[in-house]
């Protein structure tokens, strides 16, 4: 059954069902008007309230949502306007169906080139992207107490229980959010982590740590008697045999995920470093040498600079590491527009935190790091800018822009690594993918190359050829037409070799020259980039 979505007229006056408008700053309306009974109500267009026994708990709507629904069963719902609909259909790329990211009971029907219809499943159903059908919801949990409950293993939905005699009212957290059972709120799904260790209520014996199976705890009748005991190097605690054993697939399979919201799916989407302990990095015996290297590190708002002369480092074989299921340097959804972000998904923007103004571009390396030009971050603190991914045109924040704050900056020569405070998914979005890092012996001289960036607020594509540079750490990019300049600084220069797109260079010039433009030669920084970014998770090479 197809239901057209309409915005409640009452919402347009910003009035509740009782005619009262309420906020934390204006409590003129009586409590009886706000909470005529137990349940969920709209207090105005942008705020809902959960009422229980005369106590009101406010739930502000997220950006792009309005409060609507019958009194007692109201809530914040996605406001679907023309821009949102067009954007959603553009992301499908052809005829098809798309789930509303804020409400799984709603969906969009896309008919190219730009027609779209908004629909909702019948009561008790949600839309399944895979089958493109409305399917019955699992039965709502019988409320055992008034408050919050969840029976969703992904923690994308939860239930508000207003009575023990009624089923719970399902609420969807929205895209990128998950229900945190410790705070009873929806939070960034990547901020959730494993539960802290507690002994089983009557448990005695040894138990693995909930976040790291290289350590274990000893319990006696539900109490911890010995905590955080480390296994020998190269071993994990086997929760079946209750002993430390050499790392193997069998032992790895016994590692627990005690918090149901913290699972292999979470590790895949968010790239949590606590998921990486199971397979240690493999080192290549080949060593390389970096000479006269000055490295600046900015953590928070404090900078330290160290200089080393002739430092030997071990080259790590990235291909041997535990990888996510994605492939680096691969376009997963090609677009007919050469300038589309889908064709350059490793490109991100750097924006001032104060005014959201774009000042540089950068490249996705892995789930935690982006790479840019050193001059982009010189003189900047980690609190002064943000990283923006998945935004096809700056300023619109559509279709689903992802913003991350930096918490560490490291500079080496012409380039800089920026660590994000929260990981970014490399498997969830077609416009968020990493470029492949070139090995130290890869030479791109004479090859065709493409530069991408966010100059003038729109992702731009510049083709050209790479020539030898003025030093061993630089190449020259000779554009065939439009040159990179201004906010293109820090953006990726990529070359395709054997079907894979490699990050051959980083744009380090703002001059807009159409003759020769210097780029940082990424292969010369391979060891430094890897050694300082391997706390993030990489896609397969």
Task: Spell out the key features of this protein.
4 domains; 9-stranded antiparallel β-sheet; 6-stranded antiparallel beta barrel; 7 helices; 7% helix; disordered N terminus; signal; chymotrypsin; Peptidase_S1A; protease
Task: Write up what this structure looks like.
The chain is mainly β and about 550 residues long. It folds into 4 domains: about 5-80, no CATH class; about 80-135, no CATH class; about 145-190, no CATH class; about 285-540, Beta Barrel (Thrombin, subunit H). It has 7 helices and 40 strands. The protein has a 9-stranded antiparallel beta sheet. A 6-stranded antiparallel beta barrel has the order 34-35-36-39-38-37. Strands 1-9-8-7 form a 4-stranded antiparallel beta sheet, with helices on one face. Strand 10 (about 125-130) and strand 11 form a beta hairpin. The chain is globular. It starts with a strand and ends with a strand.
Quick rundown:
This protein is mainly beta. Residues 331-534 form the Peptidase S1 domain.
Per-chain topology:
Blueprint: E1 3-4, H1 9-12, H2 31-34, E2 39-44, E3 47-52, E4 55-60, E5 65-68, E6 75-78, H3 82-92, E7 96-99, E8 106-111, E9 115-120, E10 125-128, E11 133-136, E12 147-149, E13 157-161, E14 169-172, E15 177-180, E16 185-188, E17 205-208, E18 215-220, E19 223-230, E20 235-238, E21 243-246, H4 249-252, H5 264-270, E22 283-290, E23 293-299, E24 302-308, E25 311-316, E26 324-327, E27 347-352, E28 358-364, E29 369-373, H6 374-377, E30 385-391, E31 399-404, E32 406-412, E33 415-420, E34 448-453, E35 460-468, E36 474-479, E37 492-497, E38 500-507, E39 517-521, H7 526-531, E40 539-540
Parallel strand pairs: 26-40
Antiparallel strand pairs: 1-9, 2-3, 3-4, 5-6, 7-8, 8-9, 10-11, 12-13, 13-14, 15-16, 17-18, 18-19, 20-21, 22-25, 23-24, 23-32, 27-28, 27-30, 28-29, 29-33, 30-31, 32-33, 34-35, 34-37, 35-36, 36-39, 37-38, 38-39
């Amino acid at each position: 059954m197809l239901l057209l979505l309409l915005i409640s007229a009452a919402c347009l006056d910003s009035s509740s069902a009782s005619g009262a408008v309420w906020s934390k700053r204006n409590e003129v309306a009586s409590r009886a008007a706000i909470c005529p009974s137990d349940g969920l109500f709209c207090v105005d267009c942008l705020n809902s309230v959960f009422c229980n026994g005369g106590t009101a708990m406010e739930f502000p709507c997220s950006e792009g949502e309005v409060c609507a629904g019958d009194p007692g069963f109201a809530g914040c719902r996605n406001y679907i306007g023309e821009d949102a609909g067009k954007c959603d259909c553009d992301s499908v790329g052809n005829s098809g169906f798309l789930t509303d990211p804020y409400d799984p009971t709603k969906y969009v029907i896309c008919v190219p080139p730009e027609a779209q219809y908004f629909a909702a499943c019948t009561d008790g159903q949600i839309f399944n992207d895979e089958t493109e059908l409305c399917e019955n919801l699992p039965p709502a949990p019988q409320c055992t107490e008034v408050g919050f409950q969840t029976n969703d293993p992904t923690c994308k939905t939860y239930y508000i229980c207003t009575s023990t005699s009624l089923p719970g009212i399902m609420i969807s957290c929205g895209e990128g959010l998950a229900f945190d059972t410790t705070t009873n709120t929806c939070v960034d799904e990547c901020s959730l982590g494993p539960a802290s260790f507690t002994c089983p209520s009557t448990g005695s014996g040894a138990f693995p740590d909930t976040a790291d199976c290289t350590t274990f705890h000893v319990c006696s009748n539900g109490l911890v008697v010995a905590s955080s005991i480390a296994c020998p190097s190269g071993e994990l605690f086997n929760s079946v045999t209750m002993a430390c054993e050499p790392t193997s697939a069998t032992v790895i399979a016994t590692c627990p995920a005690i918090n149901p919201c913290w699972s292999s799916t979470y590790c895949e989407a968010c790239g949590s470093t606590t998921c990486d302990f199971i397979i240690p990095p493999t080192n290549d015996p080949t060593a390389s040498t970096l000479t006269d290297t000055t490295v600046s590190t900015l953590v928070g708002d404090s900078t330290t600079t160290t200089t080393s002369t002739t430092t030997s480092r071990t080259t790590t074989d990235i291909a041997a590491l535990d990888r996510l299921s994605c492939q680096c340097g691969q376009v997963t959804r090609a677009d007919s527009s050469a300038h589309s972000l889908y064709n350059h998904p490793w490109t991100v923007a750097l924006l001032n935190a104060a005014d959201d103004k774009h000042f540089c571009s950068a490249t996705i390396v892995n789930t935690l790091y982006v790479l840019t030009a050193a001059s982009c971050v010189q003189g900047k603190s980690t609190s002064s800018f943000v990283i923006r991914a998945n935004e096809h045109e700056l300023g619109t924040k559509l279709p689903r822009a992802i913003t991350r704050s930096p918490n560490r900056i490291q500079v080496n020569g012409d380039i800089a690594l920026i660590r994000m405070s929260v990981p970014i998914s490399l498997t969830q979005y077609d416009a968020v993918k990493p470029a492949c890092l070139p090995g130290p012996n890869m030479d791109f001289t004479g090859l065709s190359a493409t530069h991408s960036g966010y100059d003038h607020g729109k992702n731009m594509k510049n083709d050209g050829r790479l020539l030898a540079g003025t030093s061993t750490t630089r190449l020259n990019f000779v554009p065939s037409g439009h040159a990179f300049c201004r906010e293109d600084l820090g953006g990726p220069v990529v070359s395709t070799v054997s079907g894979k797109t490699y990050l051959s260079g980083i744009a380090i010039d703002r001059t807009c020259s159409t003759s020769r433009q210097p780029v940082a030669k990424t292969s010369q920084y391979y060891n430094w980039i890897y050694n300082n970014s391997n706390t993030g998770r990489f896609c397969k090479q």
